[in-house]
Write a structure and sequence with these properties.
homodimer; 517 residues; alpha/beta; Aspartate Aminotransferase, domain 2; Aspartate Aminotransferase, domain 1; 2 domains; 44% helix; disordered N terminus; pyridoxal phosphate binding (chains A, B); Aromatic_deC (chains A, B); Tyrosine decarboxylase (chains A, B)
Amino acid sequence: MGSLTSDPELKYNSGSFTNPLDSEEFRRQGHMIIDFIADYYKNVEKYPVRSQVEPGYLQKVLPESAPNNPESMETILQDVQQHIVPGITHWQSPNYFAYFPSSGSIAGFLGEMLSSGFNIVGFNWISSPAATELENIVMDWLGQMLKLPKSFLFSGNGGGVIQGTTCEAILCTLTAARDRVLNKIGRENISKLIVYGSDQTHCALQKAAQIVGIDVKNFRAIKTTKSSSYGLSPDSLMAQINSDVEVGLIPLFLCATIGTTAITAVDPLKPLCDVAKQFGIWVHVDAAYAGSACICPEFRHFIDGVEGADSFSLNAHKWFFATLDCCCLWVKDPRALVSSLSTNPEYLKNKATESMQVVDYKDWQITLSRRFRSLKLWFVIRNYGVANLRHFLRSHVNMAKLFERLVSGDKRFEIVFPCHFAVVCFRVSPSPVLMDKLKTKYVNCLLSEEEQINEFNRELLESINASGKAYMTHAVLGGIYAIRFATGATLTEKRHVVVAWTVVQQHLEAFQSAFKP
Amino acid sequence: MGSLTSDPELKYNSGSFTNPLDSEEFRRQGHMIIDFIADYYKNVEKYPVRSQVEPGYLQKVLPESAPNNPESMETILQDVQQHIVPGITHWQSPNYFAYFPSSGSIAGFLGEMLSSGFNIVGFNWISSPAATELENIVMDWLGQMLKLPKSFLFSGNGGGVIQGTTCEAILCTLTAARDRVLNKIGRENISKLIVYGSDQTHCALQKAAQIVGIDVKNFRAIKTTKSSSYGLSPDSLMAQINSDVEVGLIPLFLCATIGTTAITAVDPLKPLCDVAKQFGIWVHVDAAYAGSACICPEFRHFIDGVEGADSFSLNAHKWFFATLDCCCLWVKDPRALVSSLSTNPEYLKNKATESMQVVDYKDWQITLSRRFRSLKLWFVIRNYGVANLRHFLRSHVNMAKLFERLVSGDKRFEIVFPCHFAVVCFRVSPSPVLMDKLKTKYVNCLLSEEEQINEFNRELLESINASGKAYMTHAVLGGIYAIRFATGATLTEKRHVVVAWTVVQQHLEAFQSAFKP
């Protein structure tokens, strides 16, 4: 063996280089980064919530090419603090009220770390049995917490899988639905397939339809109205399907939403599934945001009727304390997914797969490689427990209700859409006095009265966000521009909601004082 | 404000619950998990590499439903040690030589942690400018390190994006290629489109083709042969294309591979691109595994000809020290991706996007939400530096060469396919003496001589893997079953390679001593 150790090509192993995964160096640097992140959370409230940088800011301060020699982690972390943190929009800030929350938690973070630490590639059972089996178990746990029908659980011959995002969940189920139909009627009929959603459905549906080869003219974004609180009307769906069927088209897939992105509207599951059933349509329920709330008995009714659906998904990274990404998808018929998405190359063949006793998740999703995502969900559920998780979610809903009360108590504002969950849509009201002033403010802009009040609210929102004190986004519906205030950031406490409201008021007052007399 | 704090619904915020993202509790538990993972790395060598559990093992020890009350992180980590670790196949073990490596590193892990800590959802520029801009910069860095033509870099009007896996990269580029053609010739012609790969191309291509609606009969897995070292022959490609065109079909997409999954074969890029160019075919280069090595000048020639391709991808989580997942994709024409994959819902509208001065990565990929993946790549490149990264890769190649020498020095074995990178394919040779013994061993099995030697090697591999002392996988090519030994696990040192070889020899000797005299 002496000749081997003296091999000059192999110096690295016995030489002066520290192994990039050396356990003691890992320990030292790991503790350093924990302190860095803990300090970040301690200070996150002080940073402007929406990043204030200009496009191209980073290129000006980073080198044009990679360093040839190593730089210390200390130096890198200094650069993170100096150059990266200012370019971050702080989703974990307690003053973050934009889009939907990205609700981090210690348990979710720790689960993610452990997953990164093991760094296994769990494409099939044998590649790490624990990764597959824990996912089976935890998805059944969460399914039970949601009171999903047993047919969606492994214990009822359905099953759950953790994917990255809703976009993937919809893409997979749509592919499965497409192939189920085309295998019967012939692949040449792809151009007859019709996909249904509402004008409030997440853009993921349209993108998935586009990817699987559904012509954009075969995508139906059925109009919703105020009368149905912007939920998809079963009558409208039926009318659309009938007119499609009449001309020889084939209804394929419906995506119903519990908690739409703009205003958290709810599509009525039961009657929609009843309509879909008549035509053999695959119904996917996108509960990306609001699904989490349905572990609370008082919210569960929003998914009544789910027993008529084929698949159901929620994003545990949105409002369930799991770190991004963690989209939980349940299907009644896993074979439909597997039939569309399975591959069986020689290099992955193994005894466990051949025994047919195991799940190989690679056949339930787009990608082959997959992270051990169930760890974080398991950590979250165990470390907080069902009772606390409900408590946390309710606290966010209550903070939204508090904000709603604050808005309602100020006559200059109005609630635009009712708050089902933890998102409040409001605006400065178009009072006669204000509209009179806006007529002057926008005198040269050729705006209608409706456009004037919308523009005014848009400017108000931009002014709030530019201050860095709070970050909110917007929704436009029925011609109305609303400011959208979403609670759910984990660090948010009641005091932040109260301050955010004060910020809104102050910005309005500043605007008003700028009006010419 | 007094009336607000006494609101009974809001007790949570002022009550006894610790916030799930409390910075000091984060610090305490964060340090705990770092120590847990550091200890895991310290001990990982002691665990059986391939998990030894039986299907269903975990269900027997975990509760059937979620706990109502919280459980401490200490309890959870005990369960991880007791129940999860035995179910893990240890990809980070120095004795892991299976599939391809999942090369972890401290820098990659730290970058991943920071990304989880910020937990931003970087779908567009404004959602965290640093996430987009750092990705732009780092992808240009890595592109330069690979000496990709400038047309693939942002600085040359192309650009790079970090996706999860090669499956996504192929799916996105194939969708873009499909739409580029169908927009010209009409969507009804989808059934005429042909996708090309070889019989060695990764199964991701077939799956992507299936998802985007290419009929399986329009998928060409062109046969490779020993004479071209299992690389795709440009002549075979040309012949196949000609016969497709002759019957009115339309060549669409070619996936060429640098380092195939089975035996790391290399498709000859330049002549393949020359053929493709004549037919306007989109060429994607899948360098998932071997691309990393091309930062070393002595390996760069393997991607000569890449200037003729449309897109190029490598998995930095395979052999470039980034934690899973980190697939780097470069395209010459980002507009083709954006044109197929963009969405523009009202709720995502913002000034930065409208200014057209920024990249919104949501339009370069399948999913909307995306993690801050560039941090880990930036950390890896800076913390090790280009010189060390080359050194690490070379050390893995040298360890594979060492193993190859060890195999070659034992007359009972033979190298089956030449080793380009860090994967060695070998087997027990079908010597006349051995074949004579196998005739007796398999007397009741109705196997040809070829099948007998294959079965013998299969049994040998299973015996090695079942021992837990090393984990290797297999490849079957040209009727030959080979044992496949891949170096690249970060902790592997020369001594592990030597021991693994001893394990192979010992298992063969045990088999031989079991032969009846």
